[in-house]
Design brief:
Layout (H helix, E strand, L loop, with lengths): L2 E7 L13 H4 L2 H12 L5 H13 L4 E4 L9 H14 L5 E3 L20 H4 L9 E5 L2 E5 L17 H16 L3 E5 L18 H11 L3 E4 L6 E5 L6 E5 L15 E10 L2 E11 L5 E9 L6
Helix pairs in contact: 6-7
Length: about 300
């Protein structure tokens, strides 16, 4: 396979199932998030998300990239509902998920709550992040920035171990001649979001990318369309973000959108074509525009 067609969307914020908060929850960040959801549920509409998923599936991409925030409060009920939703989205081998801050809202009390999502995180559920999936000419390098944070913060962190392994992974994939698509929930460019919502070790990640390079970075979290660049080996690396996949038109946030990316070999390099699909006031999806990305020189 010399070409791969990817669909990228993010932040679906699935509607939470019925649940009761315990005494410990009432004093935690989970309770604060539940209060905020009373306002946000007018923005995050399940019918918009359903229409987006139907639009994605109708265009039959080779692979789906989903950059986090399936849940809102990271409860066991939400994890179970999200697992069922992922099963309807596509085969686990054809969907790669990078968890978001809402998927790790508070510290786990027993075991790994994301274990049920393991088949969508990577080919080997036991593999630590970064997880690598190779599909055609593309290597999906999946990072996890999902960590519990204090009240009123929506920050992410990769950690030294994950960033340390990333350099060797990117170097090995470059030597193999593969297109390196890095995916995570939080934006990585300076100033993309406020400090309250930032990736706290983004500078360390940018240093690795500047040294080893990558062809593309995808993220969510900001709930808006972002096109930024960060320094890379041989030239700037494009960084693309999308709005929430469930954001209704006419609300305060940017309405739902997803990107179709066609990645193909072009001589010794690659061509990346991006087509944006956005929700209309009628609840259908339409073409918003298309463009091509120039990847950094590979050397």
């Amino acid at each position: 396979m010399s070409q791969l067609r990817l669909a990228h969307f993010s932040d679906p914020h699935l509607p939470p199932p019925a649940m009761k908060l315990g005494v410990r929850d009432a004093l935690s960040k989970r309770a604060l998030s539940r209060f905020a959801w009373r306002r946000k549920r007018r923005t995050h509409r399940p019918e918009v998300l359903d229409a987006l998923v139907a639009d994605v599936q109708a265009r039959r991409p080779d692979h789906i990239v989903l950059t986090g925030d399936l849940t809102n409060f990271s409860t066991l009920e939400e994890y179970a509902a999200a697992t069922a939703w992922l099963g309807g989205l596509g085969a686990a081998a054809d969907v790669t998920l990078s968890p978001g801050n809402h998927d790790a809202l508070i510290g786990a009390r027993a075991g790994d709550p994301l274990a049920a999502w393991g088949a969508w995180l990577g080919d080997d559920p036991a593999e630590a992040f970064p997880k690598v999936r190779i599909r055609g000419p593309v290597a999906l390098v999946n990072l996890s920035s999902a960590v519990p944070t204090a009240l009123h913060l929506a920050q992410g962190r990769l950690g030294e171990a994950q960033i340390g392994r990333l350099g060797e992974i990117l170097r090995t994939l470059r030597d193999a001649g593969l297109y390196r698509l890095v995916m995570l929930h939080h934006p990585i460019a300076e100033g993309a979001v406020s400090a309250r919502k930032s990736l706290t070790d983004a500078a360390a990640l940018r240093e690795v990318l500047a040294r080893e390079g990558a062809e593309l970075v995808l993220h969510g979290h900001a709930h808006e369309s972002l096109v930024t660049r960060v320094p890379g080996r041989g030239g700037p690396i494009p960084v693309l973000g999308v709005p929430s996949a469930s954001a209704a038109p006419g609300r305060h946030s940017e309405p739902a959108r997803w990107h179709e990316l066609a990645i193909s070999r072009d001589g010794e390099g690659f061509t990346t074509r991006v087509a944006a699909r956005g929700v209309t006031p009628e609840g259908t999806f339409e073409d918003l525009g298309a463009y091509a990305l120039t990847s950094p020189a590979r050397r």
